[in-house]
Amino acid sequence: MYTINGLIGVGAFGSVYCGFRSSDCLSVAVKHIDKQKVIDWRQWDSTRIPVELYVLESLQSVPGVVRLVDWYETDYSFLIVMERPENTTDLFEMKRQKTVWSLGIFLYELFCGDIPFLTVDDILNESNVLRFPDHVSKEYRNIIEKCLHRKQLRRPSIRDLLSHQLFQ
């Protein structure tokens, strides 16, 4: 029915995997929830389900809410199968990107003694280049520019930053 390709992330109550539906190659995310970790339950028809699944079922008609494809109950867990649109960013990735952006802002302030942008328009204007005082080395300029790249997906990962020669 579904082919699992790999782990997306692990949280306190379960793990999320990426994969696809075998019949039509629909990209899906499959969340595995251990029943022992479920704190809050609701009744759906005649079945007791985790509140997370109940809320997802209840909000299916709301635009922008991830589409629930299917769900399964086993003796020890629930599997929630959700559509995984290709052009989206999950919350873990979004948090990582914002963390890297914040690090770039911090490094700029630390080395330059000022903030890199005065307004939102300054941030959005791609022709607006960062200006550095002469005392900031080429290596530090490079890492700051990478962290403050306007395209989120072009920013380095935390792992990339930690392996950068400046942090060795």
UniProtKB/TrEMBL annotation:
EC assignment: 2.7.11.1
Keyword annotations from UniProtKB, A to Z: ATP-binding, Kinase, Nucleotide-binding, Serine/threonine-protein kinase, Transferase
GO CC, any one term: cytoplasm
Subcellular location: Host cell
Root EC class: transferase
Signal sequence, renumbered to the chain: none
A GO MF label: ATP binding
Catalyzed reactions per annotation: L-seryl-[protein] + ATP = O-phospho-L-seryl-[protein] + ADP + H(+); L-threonyl-[protein] + ATP = O-phospho-L-threonyl-[protein] + ADP + H(+)
Protein kinase domain span: 2-168
Binding-site positions, ATP: K31
Entries under Gene3D superfamilies matching the protein: Phosphorylase Kinase, domain 1, Transferase(Phosphotransferase) domain 1
Main subcellular location of this protein, as a coarse class: host cell
Pfam families the UniProt entry points to: Pkinase (PF00069)
Cross-referenced PANTHER family: PROTEIN KINASE DOMAIN-CONTAINING PROTEIN (PTHR22984:SF25), SERINE/THREONINE-PROTEIN KINASE PIM (PTHR22984)
Name of the featured protein: non-specific serine/threonine protein kinase
Organism phylogeny: Eukaryota, Metazoa, Ecdysozoa, Arthropoda, Chelicerata
